[in-house]
Fold this sequence. Notes:
By secondary structure, this protein is of the alpha+beta class. It has helices spanning 21-44, 50-93, and strands at residues 3-9, 12-18. The chain has a two-stranded antiparallel ribbon with strand order 1-2. Helix 1 packs across helix 2 (50-93). The mean pLDDT is 95.
Amino acid sequence: MDQKISIKIAERTFNLTAPTPEKEEIIRLAADAINQHLQAYTRRYPGKSLAELMPMVALNECVSRITVQREKAAQEAEAQQLGKDMANYLARTGK
């Protein structure tokens, strides 16, 4: 059953629903990460408006997500290759 939750991003409250407790935790962690990045950019670029800072936060989060996706794909490819190498080794040694 969906649970209604409230999160705060950049001093604005958003009412959302979370289908599971795990999804609620992820939503809250994401909101916290956004707020932390926003605070860091606010300190780094004083005087910039929220409208100027939020695209940088979004860009930073997307860069991180794409980096993780690429790292995961590389690890999966490496694991698949190791599996093939192991199968070939076992076939050659007759084990």
